[in-house]
Structures are given as C-alpha cells and as structure tokens.
Structure to design on (398 residues):
C-alpha cells in the first residue's frame, strides 16, 4: 500500500490532507510536533482575551481520525529528509519511509541579526505558545493594576515592531481590548500606550485601505512611528534609525518570517529566507515526489510574482499540492499552480475590520461580520472532522 507523509498540521497541510484522503487504498501519516492545529488568524483574539484558548486550536489526533481509518497522526518533529532514499528522519530517531511527501512545516518569526538585542528583547506571535504566553502576560499586568492602586497609576507601554498586516492587527486588537477593559472597570485608558513602529504602514496595499487603517489606529490611540527601521533594542528601550527612542514594558515583533529550521535544512534550492523553490506543480526543484506548500514554499503566481504568506495562500497551495499528489498516485495529469489572493480581511479592533477584495472594499462593521463569516466557514468542516474522529477514537477505547 502506497504511503503519503504530510509534515505539518498547518493550513496548507490540512488542505493537502483533505484532497489526498479521497484516494482509496493508500496510507497517510500526518507528522507535527504539536498535537493541535493553531487557528493563527484568531491568535490576535486570543491575545486580546476575546476568545478562550481552546477555540483557537483543533486537536490533530481527532481531526486526522475523522478523515478515515487510513489516516494516522504522529506527534514529533522532523529532523531531516533523505529524498534519495524516500525517507524522513524524525528528531527522536524514528525513520518514516514514503512514496510521496508534502512538506507544510510553515515558518517562524524572523528576527534580523543586524538588529542588536531584538531577539532577546521581543516576542514573535507565529505560534500558539507565543500567543498564549502574551495573553497570560497581559492579563497578569491588568490584574496587578486592578489590585494595587500604586501600580494602576503607572504608565504601561507596548511596542509592536513591524507595520505590516500582523503588526497592524495586533496593535489595533490590543488597543481595543484595553479600551473596553478600562471602561468596564472605570479606569483611565490614558495610562496605556501602544506604539506601532515600521517603515511603511501596510506597504503595498491600496491607498484607501492604508488611510482607513491609519485613521482607525489613531482613533484607538495607537502611536505610530513610521519612516524608520528599528536599529537596535535593549531592555525596555528601542532605538530607531532616525534617532527616535521608544520606551516599552513589552515588545512584540512582527517584521517578517523565515522558513522553519527543518524547511531551511532541506536539500533543495531556497530563497533568501529559507523557503524552498518549487516548480509549477509545487514540487521541490528537481524532485518528482516531494511537494512543498504554505509558508515553507516560495510561492509565485502565474506571472512569477511572489505571493504574500497568508492563511489564504497557504490553503490554496495546500489544495493544489494535495490534488497533484492525488493525480500522481492515480496516473492522471497534474495541474499547474495558480496561487492568487482573492482579497484580504484586516481585523482592526472589534467591531471594525477592512475587507479588500480588489473589485470592492468594505469598511467597519460590515467588514467585521464578513471576516468572522470567513473564519467560521474555515472552522466548521474541521470541527466536523474532529468531532467524527473523536467519536471514532472514543469507540476504540471502550
């Protein structure tokens, strides 16, 4: 029986699984070091205390079981790939043989080495663990101020480094959260300062979207520091290239991504941030049976333009990779990838969002409802498979 391995229970990995699971008489193994799929698009809601943590994850064991008896979840990390032998070596030494493999191991926050002190003084938000730790930190600070009148009078500053999509969403959600918190507890929100630092706000997006986001951030009281990179950081202070300094109590960095260490170690061609260069079918260059999807791949559209690393592009690439694996295993023609974004939804502190679909744009509450609908549409099928898988696993243990 042919064996397909999927590395990473990510947006791309699960889309690939959905397509490959349709093939009869094959065995599928999903490998991930974490026993859950993290709904990263809702991570900002978790940090802002709007949803409980269990609503931002879906258990991979139950989810995989829900796709069929031929699908197995294996918890563990990938150490190295030996494509010449069709083998994957895990961190614990376990060796997995495969006929075809899909690598969707994602990316991590990139802390530029030239920015002295950045890695030591700031946190990324790419993982569930990071988001959960940030949530705990913020809530502990709020509790301290609630219980102690002396602490309540102290100013508290959060610095978000990076003015792209992630940075803007985090700054807006945190500002909206603190405004609600202080109002409900009859406290002054003037003692909280949220700084957003970066060269350009939402670079590359439509001017009307940028302007609307800027107005919203200013309305929420976010202090913008645009036009300069962060040059270096030390404990509690950041220094910008233009000479400006920003004091902070907590710093979040969202200035970019790089391929996960396993992806960067793969014996294929890579781009400057470690993503694997792929052919028109999303196979690693020079390989017949190694497919790369999501943030692990250097995704391009039909014109060769790089596609931004979003959940949407990850899902699209995962679907394409999964379908091409299915075609390869059933001796059908594969289809060339055509990864393109249908639009972007930007959360800017509930109940406000922006949806840019190219042909039209929505702002405010209608966009907020639209974004929540998109998130729900994504989650519902996964919750269904997880529920079905849980019932199956529970039956086996009776």
């Amino acid at each position: 029986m042919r064996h397909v391995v999927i590395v990473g229970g990510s947006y791309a990995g699960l889309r690939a699984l959905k397509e490959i699971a349709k093939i009869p008489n094959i065995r599928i193994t999903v490998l991930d070091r974490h026993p859950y799929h993290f709904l990263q698009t809702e991570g900002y809601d978790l940090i802002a205390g709007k949803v409980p943590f269990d609503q931002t994850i879906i258990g991979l064991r139950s989810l995989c079981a829900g796709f069929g008896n031929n699908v197995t979840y294996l918890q563990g990390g990938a150490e190295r790939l030996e494509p010449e032998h069709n083998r994957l070596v895990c961190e614990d030494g376990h060796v997995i043989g495969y006929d075809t493999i899909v690598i969707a191991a994602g990316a991590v926050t990139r802390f530029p080495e030239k920015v002295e002190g950045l890695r030591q003084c700031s946190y990324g938000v790419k993982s569930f663990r990071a988001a959960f730790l940030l949530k705990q930190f913020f809530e502990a600070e709020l509790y301290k101020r609630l219980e102690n009148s002396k602490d309540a009078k102290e100013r508290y500053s959060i610095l978000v480094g990076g003015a792209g999509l992630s940075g803007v969403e985090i700054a807006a959600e945190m500002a909206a959260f603190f405004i609600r918190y202080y109002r409900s507890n009859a406290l002054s929100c003037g003692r909280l300062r949220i700084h957003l630092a970066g060269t350009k706000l939402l670079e590359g997006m439509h001017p009307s979207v940028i302007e609307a986001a800027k107005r919203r951030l200013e309305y929420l009281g976010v202090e913008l520091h645009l036009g300069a990179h962060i040059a270096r950081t030390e404990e509690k202070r950041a220094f910008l290239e233009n000479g400006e300094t920003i004091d902070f109590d907590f710093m979040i960095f969202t200035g970019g991504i790089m391929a996960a260490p396993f992806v960067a170690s793969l014996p294929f061609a890579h781009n400057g941030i470690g993503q694997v260069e792929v052919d028109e079918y999303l196979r690693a260059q020079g390989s017949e049976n190694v497919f790369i999807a999501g943030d692990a791949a250097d995704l391009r559209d039909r014109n060769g333009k790089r596609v931004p690393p979003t959940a949407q592009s990850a899902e699209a690439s995962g679907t394409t990779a999964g379908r091409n694996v299915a075609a390869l295993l059933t001796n059908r023609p594969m289809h060339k990838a055509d990864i393109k974004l249908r639009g972007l939804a930007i959360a800017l502190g509930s109940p406000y969002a922006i949806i840019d679909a190219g042909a039209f744009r929505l702002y405010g509450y209608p966009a907020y409802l639209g974004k929540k609908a998109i998130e729900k549409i994504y989650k519902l099928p996964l919750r269904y498979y997880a529920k079905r898988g849980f019932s199956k696993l529970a039956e086996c243990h009776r």
